[in-house]
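A quick aside before the break. I want you to see a complete sequence-to-structure record at least once, exactly as it would be stored in a machine-readable document. Don't worry about memorizing anything.
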Amino acid sequence: MVMGKDELRDLSRRERQIMDILFQRGEASAAEIHEGLPDRPSYSAVRAKLRVLEEKGHVRHEEKGLRYVYLPRLSRETARRSALRRLVSTFFEGSVEQAVAALLDVSAPQLTKTDLDRIASLIEAARKEGDEK
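That is the input. The structure line, written in tokens, reads:
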């Protein structure tokens, strides 16, 4: 099953937490996922959620020894883009400008000259790409 860019938006809070653990680790057993969850549900509830995520096509499993190890089907980059799209849409009315302004506002004290130069070059690249369209 090939998933679209925004497939992760339809996940429940717990499913999203499980996916976050899988993206962070790359792969994990049900026990490892259970240990990493906040307000831990029962182990059997985690196994049930993993089955649901597998049925939805978000995760797959491999047998490693005597246990199943779960892996995300989406790349971390695809998931990151989906989450960012959802964040900009939800909190910034779809405005990339407002989202960038908010990020700069809260991050300015930690940004180095190198960080700011990199951001400026990304903006310049986006400007050029926009001019080509």
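Two observations worth writing down. Strands lie at 28-29, 59-64, 67-72. DSSP finds six helices and three strands in the chain. We'll return to this after the break.
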